[in-house]
Amino acid sequence: MVKTKKLSATQERVMKWINGGWTIWCTRGAVVECNGKRICNLDTVMVLERLRLIKKDGSRAWVKA
Question: Which residues pair with 38 in a beta bridge?
Fold first, then answer.
């Protein structure tokens, strides 16, 4: 039996942007933005990266894995 993790509402919102082809950026401190809008914090991105749903694309940017 495979155990799956349900994404939070914030994680789903981030994945919606990334699945749409957008790149998300950590602009200052722990703020993560996409298309000029704050969408989450760095902790949310780290969880998605650990789940291998997104990957780093540069020093402070992420894209779909």
Answer: 33
Please tell me the predicted confidence (pLDDT) of residue 5: 74
Helices (H), 1-65: 9-19, 42-50
> Cα–Cα distance between 54 and 39 in angstroms, integer?
15
Task: Tell me if 18 sits within 8 A of 64, measured CB to CB.
Answer: yes
6 CB contacts (<8 Å, ≥6 apart)?
none
DSSP state of 28: E
Residue-wise pLDDT for 30-64, tens only, equals: 999 999 999 999 999 999 999 999 999 988 999 99
